[in-house]
Structures are given as structure tokens and as C-alpha cells.
Design goal:
The complex is a heterodimer. By secondary structure, chain A is an all-beta fold. Chain A has no helices and eleven strands. In chain A, the strands form two sheets. In chain A, strands 2, 4, 5, 6, 9, 10 and 11 form a seven-stranded mixed sheet that branches. Chain A has a four-stranded antiparallel sheet with strand order 1-3-8-7, with no helix packed on it. The chains are: A mainly beta, B mainly beta. Chain A binds chain B through residues 4, 6, 31, 33, 35, 42-45, 48, 55-56, 58, 90-92, 94, 96, 99-108, 110, and chain B through 31-32, 34, 36, 41-46, 49, 51, 89, 91, 93, 95, 97-106.
């Protein structure tokens, strides 16, 4: 079974621009979560989508948004980019089974904001 | 407020010996814990998990121990291999919070041949 895929793998943007990142979950997985990894803050939860609905949201400004499509693929968007948005953005998918599920991560998108 | 902490940023171990990675948490609501391994420029890879109803879980060379009263968990790798060299993250979640993972800061493990 193919793993979680994320596109693009690397991205360079300038301050003030917006960016859209894409995530395709493992086949059959219906929940997608997004995380941000930075050297200073570590791995932090952004949001989770299930059945095209946002279920949980982390402590990030409204510039960070996401959506999920009917095929479970997800996108996240960051508007008005700031230098501090430079990070590795990770997507994780899980079934869910109704209980506690293991999340499986993609390779990430490395975003650099200049 | 960091709810999950890995107090050792790095650990160096000789090949064949035991590696012990530690993790502490403060939120007593956490009821599921996971360990992930991460190589540079890759996403975290799931290693092993444990539910709060257990105090030990084994999978091959990896064993996770959970001490709920101390709010402490540890990952034991025996025997350690050079390929185990990576950054290890512990993560915790609360069942009715939608499986959102709270991560520790990571511990870089170096296994010397």
C-alpha cells in the first residue's frame, strides 16, 4: 500500500505571498492531520480533517487554513506568509477506527519564506 | 506550557548495548502514547505505542514502558544498531480530543559502531 504523499516537497516563497500544500492519505484512510515542525517550537498540531470537516484545530492564526476533498485528499493554505512560517509541514493520515489510531506521516513539505 | 518533554536532547550509545530514551508528560488526560523515529528531510515513522491501560508493550527490539503515577514513559532499544541513529519523538494523545498528537522536543540517538 502506498504511503502518505505530499506535494511539493520543497517550496520557496516571499513574505506576503500565499501557499497551498497538498496531501494524499494512505488508501482507505479518511482522516488527515497537519503538523508544523520548526527548530524552535518542535512539532505542533495545526488541524485535523475527517469527512471534509475540520474536527480539531491547534493554536495557529487564521492565516492557516485547510480543507479536505471527498476522496480524502487534503490541502492546507497559508496566506500572507511571514518569515516565521518557514518550516517543515507534515501531513498524517489515519483510518479512523473509532478508537485510538496510529497516525502515519508523509515526508513533509519544506517551506522557506524569504 | 510544554505538556510532553524529552529532557535529553541527545544520547550516544555503543552498538549492541541498550538505548533508553525518556519522556515525561504533565497532562493526566493523556491516555495513549506513541514513539516515532525521524530521519532528516523525512516524516516521522511510527515505532511503537502504548495505551494507558498497560504498563509495557514490546515489538521486537523495541519496548515501551509507561509509569502513569510518575507520568513517565521510556523507550528501550535492545540491541542498538547503527541504523537506529535518528531523532526519536514521543507523542501523547487524548482519546476524546480527536487523536491530536502532542509531541516532545525529540532526542537525537547516535549509535556508534
Amino acid at each position: 500500500k502506498a504511503g502518505v504523499t505530499q506535494t511539493p516537497r520543497y517550496l520557496i516563497k516571499t513574505r506576503g505571498q500565499q501557499v497551498t500544500l497538498s496531501c494524499s492519505p494512505i488508501s482507505g484512510h479518511r482522516s488527515v492531520s497537519w503538523y508544523q515542525q520548526t527548530p524552535g517550537q518542535g512539532l505542533q498540531f495545526l488541524f485535523e480533517y475527517f469527512s471534509e470537516t475540520q474536527r480539531n484545530k491547534g493554536n495557529f492564526p487564521g492565516r492557516f487554513s485547510g480543507r479536505q476533498f471527498s476522496n480524502s485528499r487534503s490541502e492546507m493554505n497559508v496566506s500572507t506568509l511571514e518569515l516565521g512560517d518557514s518550516a517543515l509541514y507534515l501531513c498524517a493520515s489515519r483510518l479512523p477506527s473509532g478508537g485510538i489510531d496510529t497516525q502515519y506521516f508523509g515526508p513533509g513539505t519544506r517551506l522557506t519564506v524569504l | 506550557d510544554q505538556q510532553v518533554k524529552q529532557n535529553s536532547p541527545s544520547l550516544s550509545v555503543q552498538e549492541g548495548r541498550i538505548s533508553i530514551l525518556n519522556c515525561d508528560y504533565t497532562n493526566s488526560m493523556f491516555d495513549y502514547f506513541l514513539w516515532y523515529k525521524k530521519y532528516p528531510a523525512e516524516g516521522p515513522t511510527f515505532l511503537i505505542s502504548i495505551s494507558s491501560i498497560k504498563d509495557k508493550n514490546e515489538d521486537g527490539r523495541f519496548t515501551v514502558f509507561l509509569n502513569k503515577s510518575a507520568k513517565h514513559l521510556s523507550l528501550h532499544i535492545v540491541p542498538s544498531q547503527p541504523g537506529d541513529s535518528a531523532v526519536y519523538f514521543c507523542a501523547a494523545s487524548v482519546y476524546n480530543a480527536g487523536n491530536m498528537l502532542t509531541f516532545g522536543g525529540g532526542t537525537r540517538l547516535m549509535v556508534k559502531p
